[in-house]
Design brief:
Elements (H helix, E strand, L loop, with lengths): L3 E6 L4 H14 L3 E4 L3 E8 L2 E9 L3 E8 L6 H11 L1
Antiparallel strand pairs: 1-5, 2-3, 3-4, 4-5
Amino acid sequence: MSDCNFSFTLSQPASIMVNKAKTAIENAGGSFAGNDDSGSFTLSTMAGKIEGNYSINNTHFDINITSKPMFVPCSLIENELKKFL
């Protein structure tokens, strides 16, 4: 399955954005490893496992989903991410 790539404009300092992502993923039972520059995450859902990584530059939070259930569209993942970031 092809990757899903998203780029969100930083609306807050990187440390706050990363903490929001970490908290949301861990509260959903996933794992998160990273810092204010880059990292990775894994989350099991009822539809299957979602894995990805992220990087942060001066103005953007870039997320790359590297593995997802084939019937889950990238647009659904993007919309869910927007709720937390």
